Structures are given as structure tokens and as C-alpha cells.
Amino acid sequence: MHGGHISIWFFIGISLLVNGVLILGAGIYQFVVPPVHPTVLFQLHSGIWWGAVLTIFGLLYCIKFAPSKTQHQ
Amino acid sequence: MNLALLLLAPSRMVRLGTVDVIIIAFYFALVLGIGFYLKRQANTGEDFFMAGREMTAWIAGLAFLSANLGALELMGWAGSAYQYGILATHWYWIGAIPAMLFLALVMMPFYYISKTHSVPGYLKLRFGEPSRALSAISFAFMTVLMSGVNMYAMAKVLQIVLGWNIHFSIWIASITVAIYVALGGLRSAIFNEVLQFILIWAGALLVPILGLVEAGGFSGLKARIVTNFGAEYTHLWSTLGNFNDNPMGINWVGIVFGLCCVISAGYWTTDFLVVQRVLSAKDLRSAKMAPIIGSFFKMAVPFIVILPGLLGLAVLKDPNTGALIKLVPESVATTPSGIAQGLHSYNDVLPLMLARYCGPGLLGLGMTALIAGFMSGMAGNVTAFSTVWTYDIYRALIKKEADDRHYLNMGRWSTIVGVIVSIGTAYLVMRSASIMDYVQALFSFFIAPLFGTVLLGMLWQRATNAAGFWGLFAGTASSLGMWAWVYRDPSALRYIAMSPAAKPMAEDMYRALWSCLICVVVTVVVSLLTKPRPEAELKGLVYGATEIPSEGHLPLLQRPAFWAGLAAVIFVILNLIFW
Q1: Does the beta-carbon distance from B195 to A42 stay under 8 Å?
Q2: pLDDT class for A4, splitting at 50, 70, 90?
Q3: Domains along chain B with CATH numbers
Q4: Among candidates B365, B346, B414, B408, which has minimal Cα distance to B386?
Q5: ipTM of the complex as predicted
Q6: Phi, psi of B429 (to 5 degrees)
């Protein structure tokens, strides 16, 4: 939905990007400083790759549906 | 009062870190920001109640699904998967997909072409004012009560899982929903529902992925469940020949005719909470495509809801002893003895799995997914209530002549009043938890007969106004009667479900089936005894009297029927795979 307004997909991009960066950061911190009580399958470092996936998708959505682009459509 | 003290109670299932709290706080800020941003786009009644009827098929379809994907749904069905095994998937596949496709291809043209604002509004056009009044008043009353029940359930879950103060949870979630819905109306609710849908997937998807890694794939998962609990937990259809052969105590007749043909068909095609999202679509093709798009995602939802429950059956073990952890019914877990032993209920399986696999950040996103689910369900109830109250009760029965601005303001105020009544209901439930069961049962009384009435109204020209009203009334009254009968004498279940081995889940299916049949029989008999309406009055409302635009000129990939066919094929294949 654009119609000269900010697209819903831009808001979703912002949400994924912020959450992705925070999760990626927390994952990297845990990689450097392992917790005393790790979660099951901690060795897979899911925080790092899941945070990276969310960050990439968030960035893509923010760029593709940026208000500067959609408001001219 | 210190916020930290307010938030934290002595016991909790999971402990959030700073990054988790930031993620949850960011979510609240974002949904409020969207509400404030969209306020300037809600200038007319059509904007506020119908989102300007300009949603694309994708947005309407995701909102259609998200309004149903509340956290009670997520946690409740994950718990049901632990309790009943893979049978719980029926509520996502046969209990949803055929109904969604039926809504798209058969019923949506009549809803859309009639330009109704609501399902009770359609009943007014088709059967007259008495049918609308009966349907609107019962729907508005039950919707706002259901919103309160959901609110209480959310606060209770946040108290158990996070240790949050129950009053804090009720008020913070309610005020947030009231602000963003009162500001932006349905458009704001839909935008937030799409956001919530994405967050639910982003927050919950890791649990089944990591769970399958731990269990050794799906075959490893099945093998563990068979070893731990038995093979009947891993089959979708093969145990439904007899009530005694499966953990749910139901047979295939109840699933196919009760669940698929009545309960789910009624819910997905006549519950205004979900239908309202589709009515906001920008044209008829988008309105037909929205439920079809929703059906593809609905088929995938068991991956994030049912699979965590099944994983609970397979991998939940005491980290110290290695012994299998067995979850118990809520009624056992909440007794003093259950609390002393640290027992967890079936409904705790999803938070337990989140805590098992998710570290800092991921846990915050998972909890955000649950909170988002609660809030989307609450916003869905409130927007549907506000529309039905304003258009089908206030404008129809109280103030018939007023300008659009007046009804827009009434919509905003009724949103706030709806939230306040919901809060009141939440506190009522807090005093007596058994009210929750009654409200949920009551809601089901109206859906099955309403489906019979709307379906006959759309497909049978001969159905008359009086028949519509009396059919709906008889179906609802019979459903209430059957419930009261079994409530007073539980052994009566053998007559309702036609088997002494039937369990409560079967009662719901069969009660819905009988009440819908009674509604249909009464509607047909009264129709044949009363004078039909002239065909000219039924234009745009009934099959045979309505010109439905052809889609023959569209390329194959743009035709709703093609995508519905594809969804149907995938649906059949999935059922065969997990037979």
C-alpha cells in the first residue's frame, strides 16, 4: 500500500533491521563471552546467523520501500 | 513505583536480558508510531471502518490470517499438539483451508458486490432488520467479552512466563491497542497485524528449526514420540476410525462434518473479525485472492505452532537427571501440589521451547511475537466491535440520520469504550476464572447457526426474511440448549456425539453440526411457508440474481480459481503425507 504514503513494508523493514542488529550484536557478544548457562545447541550460534538474516531482509525492505521511492509512485 | 519492581515478580519461566527488554520496548514504540502516522489517513467513516477499501490482496490476506493468529492460538495449539499429537494440525488444515477457499470463490462475491460494511449488514440486506439486530447485538456483546478474556489470558501468560505484574500487562497492552486503533481505525489495525504476522514468524521460526536439528529431523522426531508416548500421536487420519483409537477421543465424522463443514466454515466465512479484513480489499479480485493467499500461509503455520508441541513430546528432558519431563493439564499444574513440584502445563510448551533454544535477543523477539499475537487478536476484536456497534446497532437502532463525521467520532469513542469494557471483563475473569470457559463456549453458539443462515441466504433465492431470523434463532437456541444439557448431565454427551467414548472436543464438533442442521431445517421449512421476496430485491445478494464478473479474460496466473486449485492440491498432498 503506497498511495503517496509510507509503505507498510518500510515499517516492517525498520522492525526487522533494528531487531536483526540487536540480535546479531547479542549473538556476537555471546560468541566472545560464552554464557555460564548456555541454551541447547548454543554451539550453532543461532543468534549470529538469525540476526544476520533479519538484518539483511530489513535492509532490503528499507531500501526497496524507502519513503523517498514510494511517495513518487 | 519503581518500574523494575512493578514488572518483576518472584517466579518466572524465563529471564529477559537488557537486549530483550529493548526489543519489546521498540515493538511498543513502533506500533504506537504507526498509529500516530496513520491518524491523518482516517478522515471519513469509510477510511476508519473499512481502511478506505484500498488494501492489496497481500495485505488483506496477511491481516485476515494475523487477526486469527493470536497468542492464545499460538500457545493454546502448541499445548494441544503436546496433548493430542499431530491431530491438532486438523485445526490448521481441514479446519481452515477448505473454508478459506470457499469464502474466496463462493461467498466473497456476494459480500463484496453488496458493498456491505459487515456480516450483520449483509443479513440486513438479505433478511431484514430483525436478523441484523439479533446477529449484531450477539456479535458485539461476545466480541468485547472475548477481547477481555484474551486480555486476561495474555496478562496471566506474561505473569507466568516473564514474571510481569498482571495489572501492568493488562493496562499497558490495552492502552497501546486503544491508542493505535482509535487513531488510525481499521487501517492502523491492519498495518499492525501485518507487522505482527512478520514478527510472529521471525520470533517463532527458530524453535522448530533448532528442534528438528536436535531431534534428528522429522523421522527422528517421530521415532522419539513413538518411544516416549506411542504411535497414535504421529498420525493425522489413520487413528480417526474410532473414538478410542486417538488421544482426542473423536472420530472422522466429527472432524470432517463438525469441524470442516460447520465450525471452521462458519468461523472463516461469517465471523466478522476475520471477514472485515478481506472486505477492506481494493477490488473484487483482491478480495477473492486475500483468503487464498492466507490459505497458503495457514498451511505453513503448523510449522511454528504444532511442531514445537510435538518437539516437546520428543526432547523435553530434565537437564540434571535426563528423565522425560511430562507436562500436565492446567488444572493440575496450578494446584498447590503442582506448584510445589514445579509442574508445567501443556500450554507452557511454547515458552519452554523458546527458553530452551533462544539466547539473549532471540528470546526478546520470541516474547515480542507472543505479545504481538495477543495485541493483534485484541485489536481485531476491538475494530470489529467498533464497526458493528457504529453501523449495525447505533446507526440502525439509535441514531439513523447523522453525518459521516458523527459516525467517525462514534467509531473512535466506541473503540475506547470497547477497550474499557474489555478491561472490565478481564478483571471479572480474574475474580472467577470459570467465566472464561463460559464466554468461549457462548461465542461458539452463534457461529455455527450463522453460517447456515448466511449460506442459505447467498445460495437459495427462496429463503425468506422470516425464515432467516427464525432459522438463526432456532440454531442458536438449540446450541445453547445442548450445551446446558451436557453441562447439567455430562453423560448426555453420548447422545450429542453419538458415542459413550466421546470426549469434550467431540462435543463441540457435534453440537455445532446439529445446531447448523437445525438452523438449515427451520430456515427451509419457514421459507416454504412464507412469501418469497421478489427477485429484483435480491440483486447483488443471492446466487442466480447476481451478475458475478467473469475472470475468463485474465491470464491464468491472475485468476483466483487457479491459485485456489493449487492450494487445494497442496492441502491434499499434505494430508496424504501425514495420514
Answers
A1: no
A2: low
A3: 3-430 (1.20.1730.10)
A4: B414
A5: 0.92
A6: -65, -35
A3: nearest CA in chain B?
Answer: B54
Q: How far apart are CA B206 and CA B210, in angstroms?
A: 6
Amino acid at the residue B517: L
Coil, strand or helix at B403: coil
Q: Say which residues have a Cβ less than 8 Å from residue B118's Cβ, sequence separation at least 6.
A: B136, B272, B276, B279, B387, B388, B391, B392
Report residue B26 as a C-alpha cell. Answer: 521498540
The CA distance from B128 to B120, in Å, is 10
Please choose, from the candidates B200, B259, B183, the residue with its C-alpha nearest in 3D space to the C-alpha of residue B65.
B200
Question: Identity (one letter) of the amino acid at B55?
Answer: M
B283 touches chain A (CB under 8 A): no
Could you tell me the end-to-end alpha-carbon distance of chain A, in angstroms, rounded to an integer? 11
- For the cut 50, the answer to whether the pLDDT of residue B4 exceeds it is no
Q: How many CB atoms lie within 10 A of CB B219?
A: 9
Q: Which three cell numbers stand for residue B237?
A: 487420519
Q: How far A69 CA sits from the closest chain B CA (Å)?
A: 18
Any A CB within 8 A of B30 CB: yes
Q: Which residue has the cell 466480541?
A: B143
For residue B326, which phi and psi values (nearest 5 degrees)? -105, 120
In tens, the pLDDT along B236-291 reads: 898 888 877 777 777 888 888 888 888 888 889 988 888 888 988 999 999 999 99
Q: State the amino acid at position B419 in one-letter form.
A: V
Q: How far is the C-alpha of B437 from the C-alpha of B74, rounded, in Å?
A: 18
Query: Closest to A15 (Cβ–Cβ): which among B30, B359, B364?
Result: B30
pLDDT of residue B1: 35
Determine the residue type at B170.
I
Which residue from B138, B132, B109, B112 is spatially nearest to B120, judged by alpha carbons?
A: B132
Mean pLDDT of B120-140: 91
**CA–CA dist B102, B567 (Å, integer):** 12
Give pLDDT, residue B559.
Answer: 92
Taking contacts as CB-CB distances below 8 angstroms, the residues of chain B near A22 are 19, 22-23, 361, 364
The residues, ordered by sequence, that sit 6+ positions from B495 with a Cβ below 8 Å of its Cβ are none
Cα dihedral angle (B460, B462, B467, B468), rounded to 10 degrees? 40
- How far, CA to CA in Å, does B543 sit from each of B270, B421, B456, B522? 17, 39, 10, 21
